[in-house]
Specification:
Blueprint: E1 2-7, H1 14-25, E2 28-31, H2 32-42, H3 45-55, H4 62-72, E3 79-83, H5 89-101, E4 108-113, H6 116-130, H7 137-151, H8 153-159, E5 164-168, H9 173-185
Helix pairs in contact: 1-9, 2-3, 4-5, 6-7
The structure holds adenosine monophosphate.
The site of adenosine monophosphate has 17 residues, from α2 and α3.
Length: 188
C-alpha cells in the first residue's frame, strides 16, 4: 500500500501530480485545501470560520485539518496521497499517530522543488484562470512566507525517518511525473 505525502510550496504542482499518481495507483486523494474550499463554498459554520484565515494566506489551526483527515480515512482505500497536508510538524506527528492506529504508515514524502519567482508567476496565472481568491500577488507572498516558516520543517521530520525524496518540479508535466514515479519506486 502506498501512502504518499506530496509536499511543496503553493504552486509547485501538487494537485497536478496528485491526479497523475491517483490514476496510476488508484489512490485516495486527501487535499486539505480542497476540503477547506468545499467547506467555504457550502457556507458551513467551519467554512465561515476559516474563510478569513485562508483569504489572508495563513494556516488554519492544526486541530481543524487533523480532524478533517481523520474523518476521511477509509478501510477500503488502496492508499492515500496527502496533498497540502501535513503543513506543520504537529500535523505530521498527528498523521503518524492516526495512521499507526490503522496499522498504516507513510511510504515516502515527495518534495517538489520550484523557485519562488516561478511559483509567483504560476499562481498569478492560476488566479486569472480559476478566479481562486487567494491567488493574488500579496496573498501569494504571505503563503510562501508561511510555507518557509511553518511548513518547510516538515521536510526535516520525514528526512529523519529516511522517507524524504526531492524532485525537480520545473519543466514539462509528464517529465516531472516520471521523476516522481521513479522516486516513489525506490520506496514502494
Ligand atoms: P492549498 O490549496 O493547499 O494551497 O490550501 C489553501 C489554503 O487552505 C492555505 O493557504 C491555508 O489557509 C489552508 N490550508 C490548507 N491545508 C492546510 C493545512 N494542512 N494546514 C493549515 N492550513 C491549511
Amino acid at each position: 500500500m502506498l501512502n504518499i505525502v506530496l509536499f511543496g510550496p503553493p504552486g509547485a504542482g501538487k494537485g497536478t501530480q496528485s491526479k497523475i499518481l491517483i490514476e496510476k495507483h488508484g489512490l485516495t486523494h486527501l487535499s486539505t485545501g480542497d476540503m477547506l474550499r468545499a467547506e467555504k463554498a457550502s457556507g458551513s459554520e467551519l467554512g465561515e470560520r476559516v474563510k478569513q484565515i485562508m483569504a489572508e494566506g495563513k494556516l488554519v489551526s492544526d486541530s481543524i485539518v487533523i480532524e478533517m483527515i481523520a474523518n476521511r480515512l477509509d478501510a477500503q482505500s488502496q492508499g492515500y496521497i496527502f496533498d497540502g497536508f501535513p503543513r506543520t510538524v504537529a500535523q505530521a506527528e498527528a498523521l503518524d499517530r492516526l495512521l499507526q492506529s490503522h496499522d498504516l504508515g507513510i511510504t515516502a514524502m515527495v518534495q517538489l522543488e520550484v523557485a519562488d519567482e516561478e511559483l509567483v508567476s504560476r499562481l498569478v496565472q492560476r488566479g486569472k484562470d480559476s478566479g481562486r481568491a487567494d491567488d493574488n500577488e500579496e496573498t501569494i507572498r504571505k503563503r510562501l512566507a508561511e510555507y518557509k516558516d511553518k511548513t518547510l520543517p516538515v521536510a526535516g521530520y520525514y528526512k529523519a525517518q529516511d522517507k524524504w525524496i526531492s524532485v525537480d518540479g520545473i519543466g514539462d508535466i509528464t517529465a516531472i511525473s516520471e521523476r516522481v514515479a521513479a522516486a516513489i519506486e525506490q520506496y514502494a
